[in-house]
Amino acid sequence: MANVVPEQAFDVVVVDEAQDFSANQLRAIVRHLADDGTVTFVTDTAQRIYPRGVPWAETGITIPASRSFQLTRNYRNTRQIAALASSIASGLPIDDDGRLPNPAFCNRDGPSPQWIRGTFQQQLDFALAALAKINTDEETVGFLHLKGGGWFDAVRGALNQRGYSFCELQGASDWPEDGPNIGLCTLHSAKGLEFDHVFMIGLAQAHASYGAEPDDDRYASLRRLFAMGIGRARNSILLGSKPGEALHALNLIDPACVEQIDL
Protein backbone atom coordinates (compact mmCIF):
# COMPACT_ATOMS: atom_id res chain seq x y z
CA MET A 1 0.00 0.00 0.00
CA ALA A 2 2.83 2.41 0.75
CA ASN A 3 4.45 1.90 -2.66
CA VAL A 4 1.64 1.43 -5.19
CA VAL A 5 -0.35 4.18 -6.87
CA PRO A 6 -3.88 3.78 -5.45
CA GLU A 7 -6.75 3.09 -7.86
CA GLN A 8 -9.07 4.88 -5.49
CA ALA A 9 -8.08 7.75 -3.20
CA PHE A 10 -10.10 8.62 -0.10
CA ASP A 11 -11.42 12.06 0.74
CA VAL A 12 -11.91 11.52 4.48
CA VAL A 13 -10.01 9.02 6.65
CA VAL A 14 -10.29 8.50 10.43
CA VAL A 15 -7.61 6.32 12.04
CA ASP A 16 -8.54 5.03 15.48
CA GLU A 17 -5.99 3.51 17.90
CA ALA A 18 -3.23 5.11 15.84
CA GLN A 19 -0.67 4.48 18.61
CA ASP A 20 -0.59 0.81 17.57
CA PHE A 21 0.12 1.46 13.88
CA SER A 22 3.64 1.15 12.47
CA ALA A 23 5.33 3.94 10.53
CA ASN A 24 4.81 2.00 7.29
CA GLN A 25 1.12 1.52 8.01
CA LEU A 26 0.64 5.24 8.67
CA ARG A 27 2.56 6.17 5.54
CA ALA A 28 0.41 3.75 3.53
CA ILE A 29 -2.76 5.42 4.80
CA VAL A 30 -1.52 8.86 3.79
CA ARG A 31 -0.50 7.48 0.39
CA HIS A 32 -4.15 6.61 -0.28
CA LEU A 33 -5.51 10.07 0.54
CA ALA A 34 -6.91 12.27 -2.21
CA ASP A 35 -4.90 15.42 -2.93
CA ASP A 36 -7.40 17.51 -0.96
CA GLY A 37 -8.29 14.70 1.46
CA THR A 38 -8.25 14.95 5.24
CA VAL A 39 -7.07 12.44 7.81
CA THR A 40 -7.77 12.39 11.56
CA PHE A 41 -5.60 10.30 13.87
CA VAL A 42 -7.07 9.28 17.24
CA THR A 43 -4.29 8.11 19.52
CA ASP A 44 -3.54 7.38 23.17
CA THR A 45 0.00 6.10 23.75
CA ALA A 46 -0.95 5.17 27.32
CA GLN A 47 -2.92 2.33 25.70
CA ARG A 48 -0.16 1.18 23.35
CA ILE A 49 -0.21 -2.64 23.49
CA TYR A 50 2.06 -3.43 20.53
CA PRO A 51 5.77 -2.53 20.29
CA ARG A 52 5.48 -1.11 16.77
CA GLY A 53 4.21 2.36 17.71
CA VAL A 54 6.60 5.11 16.56
CA PRO A 55 7.09 8.87 17.02
CA TRP A 56 5.36 11.05 14.43
CA ALA A 57 8.72 12.32 13.19
CA GLU A 58 9.57 8.85 11.91
CA THR A 59 6.38 8.62 9.86
CA GLY A 60 7.00 11.76 7.84
CA ILE A 61 3.64 13.11 8.98
CA THR A 62 3.56 16.61 10.44
CA ILE A 63 0.66 17.65 12.66
CA PRO A 64 0.64 21.38 13.50
CA ALA A 65 -0.05 22.24 17.12
CA SER A 66 -3.13 24.17 16.01
CA ARG A 67 -4.58 20.92 14.62
CA SER A 68 -3.92 18.77 17.69
CA PHE A 69 -6.60 18.45 20.36
CA GLN A 70 -6.61 16.60 23.67
CA LEU A 71 -9.79 14.84 24.79
CA THR A 72 -10.27 14.52 28.54
CA ARG A 73 -13.82 13.47 29.42
CA ASN A 74 -14.30 9.76 30.16
CA TYR A 75 -17.81 8.79 29.12
CA ARG A 76 -17.39 5.03 29.55
CA ASN A 77 -16.08 4.24 33.03
CA THR A 78 -17.27 4.87 36.53
CA ARG A 79 -14.85 6.68 38.81
CA GLN A 80 -14.15 3.39 40.59
CA ILE A 81 -13.19 1.57 37.38
CA ALA A 82 -10.99 4.45 36.21
CA ALA A 83 -9.22 4.51 39.59
CA LEU A 84 -8.46 0.79 39.33
CA ALA A 85 -7.08 1.11 35.79
CA SER A 86 -5.02 4.10 36.91
CA SER A 87 -3.42 2.14 39.76
CA ILE A 88 -2.23 -0.50 37.25
CA ALA A 89 -0.84 2.07 34.79
CA SER A 90 0.55 4.54 37.34
CA GLY A 91 4.23 5.30 36.76
CA LEU A 92 4.30 4.20 33.12
CA PRO A 93 6.04 6.71 30.84
CA ILE A 94 3.45 8.90 29.14
CA ASP A 95 4.15 11.31 26.29
CA ASP A 96 2.08 14.19 24.91
CA ASP A 97 -0.11 11.75 22.97
CA GLY A 98 -1.10 9.75 26.04
CA ARG A 99 -3.30 10.10 29.08
CA LEU A 100 -3.62 7.84 32.12
CA PRO A 101 -7.12 6.92 33.31
CA ASN A 102 -8.29 9.62 35.69
CA PRO A 103 -11.42 9.27 37.85
CA ALA A 104 -11.66 13.07 37.96
CA PHE A 105 -12.70 13.00 34.29
CA CYS A 106 -15.59 10.57 34.90
CA ASN A 107 -19.10 11.69 35.76
CA ARG A 108 -20.51 8.45 37.21
CA ASP A 109 -20.03 6.34 40.33
CA GLY A 110 -20.55 2.59 40.58
CA PRO A 111 -19.79 -0.42 42.74
CA SER A 112 -16.25 -1.06 43.93
CA PRO A 113 -14.30 -3.41 41.65
CA GLN A 114 -13.91 -6.86 43.18
CA TRP A 115 -10.75 -8.99 43.37
CA ILE A 116 -11.56 -12.56 44.30
CA ARG A 117 -8.86 -15.05 45.33
CA GLY A 118 -9.27 -18.79 45.25
CA THR A 119 -8.99 -21.80 42.97
CA PHE A 120 -10.06 -21.31 39.40
CA GLN A 121 -13.24 -23.30 40.00
CA GLN A 122 -14.08 -21.07 42.96
CA GLN A 123 -13.47 -18.01 40.81
CA LEU A 124 -15.69 -19.38 38.06
CA ASP A 125 -18.49 -20.25 40.49
CA PHE A 126 -18.33 -16.73 41.95
CA ALA A 127 -18.41 -15.16 38.48
CA LEU A 128 -21.43 -17.25 37.47
CA ALA A 129 -23.25 -16.25 40.64
CA ALA A 130 -22.55 -12.60 39.76
CA LEU A 131 -23.67 -13.23 36.19
CA ALA A 132 -27.01 -14.59 37.45
CA LYS A 133 -27.75 -11.13 38.94
CA ILE A 134 -27.24 -9.36 35.60
CA ASN A 135 -30.03 -8.87 33.09
CA THR A 136 -28.16 -10.14 30.04
CA ASP A 137 -31.09 -9.21 27.79
CA GLU A 138 -30.23 -5.57 28.36
CA GLU A 139 -26.58 -5.50 29.53
CA THR A 140 -23.41 -6.92 28.01
CA VAL A 141 -20.84 -9.10 29.79
CA GLY A 142 -17.28 -9.81 28.69
CA PHE A 143 -15.13 -12.70 29.89
CA LEU A 144 -11.61 -11.49 29.10
CA HIS A 145 -8.26 -13.21 29.52
CA LEU A 146 -4.62 -12.95 28.48
CA LYS A 147 -4.90 -16.24 26.61
CA GLY A 148 -7.59 -17.50 24.25
CA GLY A 149 -8.53 -20.79 22.66
CA GLY A 150 -8.70 -23.71 25.06
CA TRP A 151 -8.38 -21.49 28.13
CA PHE A 152 -12.06 -20.60 27.71
CA ASP A 153 -13.20 -24.24 27.60
CA ALA A 154 -14.18 -24.30 31.28
CA VAL A 155 -16.05 -21.01 30.90
CA ARG A 156 -17.81 -22.25 27.76
CA GLY A 157 -18.82 -25.48 29.48
CA ALA A 158 -20.16 -23.68 32.55
CA LEU A 159 -22.15 -21.20 30.46
CA ASN A 160 -23.60 -23.99 28.31
CA GLN A 161 -24.52 -26.00 31.40
CA ARG A 162 -26.50 -23.05 32.77
CA GLY A 163 -28.21 -22.29 29.49
CA TYR A 164 -26.40 -19.02 28.66
CA SER A 165 -25.90 -18.08 25.04
CA PHE A 166 -22.56 -16.46 24.28
CA CYS A 167 -20.43 -15.39 21.34
CA GLU A 168 -16.75 -15.58 20.48
CA LEU A 169 -15.37 -12.07 20.01
CA GLN A 170 -11.82 -13.06 19.11
CA GLY A 171 -10.74 -10.77 16.29
CA ALA A 172 -14.15 -9.07 16.14
CA SER A 173 -14.44 -5.30 15.78
CA ASP A 174 -18.01 -5.20 17.07
CA TRP A 175 -20.71 -7.35 18.62
CA PRO A 176 -22.45 -9.76 16.19
CA GLU A 177 -25.72 -8.26 15.03
CA ASP A 178 -28.62 -9.61 17.13
CA GLY A 179 -26.13 -11.86 18.93
CA PRO A 180 -26.03 -12.82 22.62
CA ASN A 181 -24.86 -10.28 25.16
CA ILE A 182 -22.13 -12.45 26.69
CA GLY A 183 -18.82 -12.42 24.86
CA LEU A 184 -15.50 -14.27 25.25
CA CYS A 185 -12.21 -12.86 24.02
CA THR A 186 -8.58 -12.15 24.83
CA LEU A 187 -7.51 -8.78 26.19
CA HIS A 188 -5.90 -7.97 22.83
CA SER A 189 -9.19 -8.59 21.02
CA ALA A 190 -11.10 -6.53 23.58
CA LYS A 191 -9.39 -3.40 22.25
CA GLY A 192 -12.09 -1.29 20.63
CA LEU A 193 -14.93 -3.14 22.39
CA GLU A 194 -16.74 -2.28 25.60
CA PHE A 195 -18.98 -4.15 28.03
CA ASP A 196 -21.34 -3.20 30.83
CA HIS A 197 -19.62 -5.80 33.02
CA VAL A 198 -16.17 -7.37 32.67
CA PHE A 199 -15.01 -10.63 34.29
CA MET A 200 -11.25 -11.28 34.23
CA ILE A 201 -10.69 -14.49 36.18
CA GLY A 202 -7.76 -16.89 36.07
CA LEU A 203 -5.21 -14.08 36.08
CA ALA A 204 -2.08 -16.20 36.51
CA GLN A 205 1.56 -15.21 36.18
CA ALA A 206 2.10 -18.33 34.05
CA HIS A 207 0.11 -16.62 31.28
CA ALA A 208 2.39 -13.56 31.20
CA SER A 209 5.51 -13.36 29.06
CA TYR A 210 8.31 -10.93 29.85
CA GLY A 211 11.82 -10.92 31.25
CA ALA A 212 13.09 -10.25 34.76
CA GLU A 213 14.72 -6.91 33.91
CA PRO A 214 12.95 -4.01 35.58
CA ASP A 215 12.98 -1.97 32.35
CA ASP A 216 11.63 -4.80 30.17
CA ASP A 217 9.21 -3.03 27.81
CA ARG A 218 7.12 -6.20 27.59
CA TYR A 219 6.16 -5.75 31.23
CA ALA A 220 5.12 -2.17 30.53
CA SER A 221 3.07 -3.43 27.57
CA LEU A 222 1.42 -6.01 29.82
CA ARG A 223 0.47 -3.30 32.31
CA ARG A 224 -1.01 -1.18 29.54
CA LEU A 225 -2.90 -4.20 28.23
CA PHE A 226 -4.23 -5.05 31.70
CA ALA A 227 -5.29 -1.45 32.38
CA MET A 228 -6.92 -1.26 28.95
CA GLY A 229 -8.90 -4.46 29.68
CA ILE A 230 -10.17 -3.00 32.94
CA GLY A 231 -11.14 0.14 31.05
CA ARG A 232 -13.41 -1.88 28.74
CA ALA A 233 -15.96 -2.02 31.60
CA ARG A 234 -18.72 0.55 31.85
CA ASN A 235 -20.34 -0.44 35.15
CA SER A 236 -18.48 -3.20 37.00
CA ILE A 237 -15.24 -5.21 36.95
CA LEU A 238 -14.41 -8.55 38.57
CA LEU A 239 -10.81 -9.80 38.80
CA GLY A 240 -9.87 -13.31 39.92
CA SER A 241 -6.59 -15.04 40.80
CA LYS A 242 -5.25 -18.05 42.67
CA PRO A 243 -3.06 -17.32 45.73
CA GLY A 244 0.59 -18.04 45.00
CA GLU A 245 0.01 -18.02 41.22
CA ALA A 246 -1.44 -14.55 40.68
CA LEU A 247 -0.36 -12.24 37.90
CA HIS A 248 2.38 -10.05 39.39
CA ALA A 249 0.78 -6.90 37.99
CA LEU A 250 -2.08 -7.43 40.43
CA ASN A 251 0.32 -6.34 43.18
CA LEU A 252 0.23 -2.84 41.69
CA ILE A 253 -3.42 -2.43 42.66
CA ASP A 254 -4.11 0.14 45.34
CA PRO A 255 -6.04 -1.83 48.01
CA ALA A 256 -8.36 1.15 48.38
CA CYS A 257 -9.51 0.60 44.76
CA VAL A 258 -10.93 -2.90 45.20
CA GLU A 259 -13.02 -5.10 47.44
CA GLN A 260 -10.81 -8.10 48.13
CA ILE A 261 -12.62 -11.40 48.70
CA ASP A 262 -10.92 -14.64 49.75
CA LEU A 263 -12.97 -17.63 48.62
Q: What share of the residues lie within helices?
A: 10-25%
Unreliable runs: none
Categorize the overall geometry: globular
Count of β-strands? 9
Average pLDDT, rounded to a whole number, is: 89
Q: In order across it, which strands form the biggest sheet? A: 5-6-4-7-8-3-9
Radius of gyration: 20 Å
Structure class = alpha/beta
Order of helices and strands: EHEHHEHEHEEHEHEE
**Relative strand content:** 15-25%
The largest sheet, given as strand count, sense and whether it forms a barrel, is: 7 strands, parallel
- End-to-end gap: 53 Å
For the structure shown, list the relevant keywords:
9 strands; 263 residues; alpha/beta; 7 helices
Task: Describe the overall structure.
The chain is of the alpha/beta class. The chain is built from 7 helices and 9 strands. It has helices at 23-31, 56-59, 79-89, 120-131, 153-161, 187-190, 217-230, and strands at 10-15, 33-41, 114-117, 141-145, 167-168, 182-186, 195-200, 233-241, 259-262. Strands 5-6-4-7-8-3-9 form a 7-stranded parallel β-sheet. Strands 1-2 form a two-stranded parallel ribbon. Helix 1 links the parallel strand 1 and strand 2 (33-41). Helix 3 (79-89) runs antiparallel to helix 7.
